[in-house]
Amino acid sequence: MHRILYFLVLLLFGCVVCHSQQEKVRRFNLKELNNFKEKYYQNREIGTDSAIYYMDRLITSDVIAYKVFGFAAKEYLHIKDKRVYDTIFFAKNLKKYLAEAERNPTDYTTLAQVYITMGGSYKRKENYNLALEYYLKADDYAKKSGNIEVQIKTMGNIALIKQDVHQLEQALGQLKTMRSFLDKNKDLLSDEIYTKFSKKVLLDIGSVYSDLLKKDRSRSHHLVDSAFYYYKECFKQPNLNIKDLGELNFRMGIVYTRKLSYAEAIPYYEKSLELFHDVESSKLYEVYYNAGFNYYSLEKYELAKLFFHKTLSLNKGNNIDFIYVHSHEYLRDIYLFQQNLDSTMYYNNLATRFLDQATESKIQEIKSTNDQLKTNDTEIAIRALQEKNSKSTSIYQVIISLLVILSIVVFLLVIKNSREKKKAKNRLEQLLKVISENSSREKPEITLNNFKIKDDKHQEIIEKLIQLEQKKYFLKKEFNLYNTAKKIGTNTTYLSKIIKDYKQMNFSEYTNELRINHIVSVLKHDRKVRSYTTKAIGELGGYQNARSFTRIFKNYTGITPYGFVEKINSELENG
Predict the structure, then answer these.
(1) Rounded CA gap, 295 and 258, in Å?
(2) How far apart are CA 63 and CA 60, in angstroms?
(3) Is the confidence at residue 277, as pLDDT, over 60?
(4) In angstroms, what is the C-alpha Rg of the chain?
(5) What is the pLDDT of residues 189-229, one digit of tens each?
(6) What is the Cα–Cα distance from 471 to 283, expressed in whole angstroms?
(7) Which end of the chain is more exposed for a tag (fewer CB within 10 A), N or C?
(8) Are 307 and 292 in contact (CB under 8 A)?
């Protein structure tokens, strides 16, 4: 009897598992499918999780071309964010549905996009040969589709792969063919799409000439002129945004660096840093490194140290690439030159450890990017410095000192983190307390009674500041210290001092407090706004970047905007 019951339980469990693993197929109209597909291309704006959600919907489609696109796009998103995923599962389904889609192809455009996406996945895996194979297949389908935009994308991807594998002359030919094709079909593209591709191809052609310069300095004059020509043509393109200008200045700096004109390169890197700071670009990491290298080459070691330290702070060991390793090596050599043995050994040991942990291909990549560091000479110099310092310093003392410093730093970080969490928790409780009160109750108006007035001039400035707050001037794009001081009729230094005296914060903190409080107030009173996306909610307070807004909101309230909306809804329902 027990055996029979055991068998029935196993049978029931097997049925449940099989049923759960059956693929649910849904019917969507073409408009819905294309909307889902578009979410993949918007993954930077909407976030990876949201993009994966829509890819999961595509995977359930009964239209095979869109189904296989969903699998390819979902795999790429996992690879891009370095997430763990079932590679066998994706390989099996991509092979199965791709073969089915290719037997009776009806949507050449989507098939081309599938192969472009798969090529992108293998490019991120650094399997350039397979990536090129997929891009070439994408090119075949793109030509059959007659879709000019997709054809241009595939041509560009093929060129970039050839650049990655150092087939620079072929990459250059491909890009020039792409530019000719783009101009030939200009009338078939919107102005926006044409301008986007024009900027991209001009940047890429200039980049290939720059790489050729690094490879062959015997033609430096011709290659430098060619790179500058295409970058300057790109500067002439309409509607260049801050990122475009930052990228162009960065690449101009690289050409001067490879020309060995380090002093001429510096202003371009500085301009690039200024522009990229405004948009919080991830390219800051590369620009800081390049600026540090140029200062190092000019023997301006203190400035070089500053930039290399900034480079490391933007990575923090999350990605052990050539920039990260070389930054440690340059810092090692600078401290060695300055006869600082402790710092020399610290950065030397880290660089050595990173190389020991790297794969052979990664080691070759790191070594191939810089031929100026002479390891043997460095080791000899380090040994000489060790001998010089051996009488005054023992290894035991160094270890103890490092452990003490590390313990202090960890202790301080723990205390700081604990205090910040406590402050964030208190802020959140205060905000939720306000929300739980009667929603019709108006927020108390700020008056001069809140402040201790020093003199008439202070009183006048504070009055005008309060008027600007009431008019919600802080929501405007032009709201900054300079414009606010101008409106009030004072200078930036005096206004900063008053805000510091009476608000106990700097202007940036003051701005964030006003904007976040405004957003909280809107969320409290308007249920419709609580259904907005994070980006849309941020825009209500003047934040254009969703990631930046989320970070500031969380710092202020201790919780993300999405989590805060859930708290509000919960408080209102329970209240």
Answers:
(1) 14
(2) 9
(3) yes
(4) 29
(5) 999 999 999 999 999 999 999 999 988 888 889 999 999 99
(6) 37
(7) N
(8) yes
Dmax over CA atoms of the chain, in Å, equals: 96
Q: Residue 8's beta-bridge partner residues?
A: none
- Pair of tokens at residue 282: 């991830």
Helix (H/G/I), strand (E/B), else coil: 26? strand
Cβ–Cβ contacts within 10 Å for residue 410, how many?
10
Following CA atoms 432, 435, 436, 439 in sequence, which dihedral angle do they give, to the nearest 10 degrees? 180
Average pLDDT for 62-68:
93
Distance CA 294, CA 265 (A): 7
Backbone dihedral angles phi then psi of residue 423, each to the nearest 5 degrees: -60, -45
Helix-, strand-, coil-residue percentages of the chain, each rounded to 5? 80, 0, 20
Bridge partners, residue 26, by sequence: 61
Q: Hey, what amino acid is at 144?
A: K
As a whole number of angstroms, the distance between CA 289 and CA 315 comes to 11
> CB count, 10 Å around CB of 400?
11
DSSP 363-375: HHHHHHT-----H
Q: C-alpha angle 335/340/344, rounded to 5°? A: 55
- Closest of 286, 321, 322, 325 to residue 307, by C-alpha: 286
Residue 515, strand partner residues: none
Q: In the block, which residue shows the tokens 């970039």?
A: 160
Q: How far apart are CA 386 and CA 339, in angstroms?
A: 10
Query: How many other CB atoms are found less than 10 A from the CB of residue 413?
Result: 10
For residues 522 and 339, give the distance between their C-alpha atoms in angstroms, rounded to a whole number.
59
Could you tell me the domains of the chain?
A: 451-574 (1.10.10.60)
Q: Tell me, what's the pLDDT at 492?
A: 87
CB proximity list for 51: less than 8 A, separation 6 or greater: 39, 40, 42, 43, 73, 77
Return the residue matching tokens 């409080």. Answer: 517
pLDDT tens-place string over residues 506-519: 988 888 888 888 88
Residue 20, amino acid = S
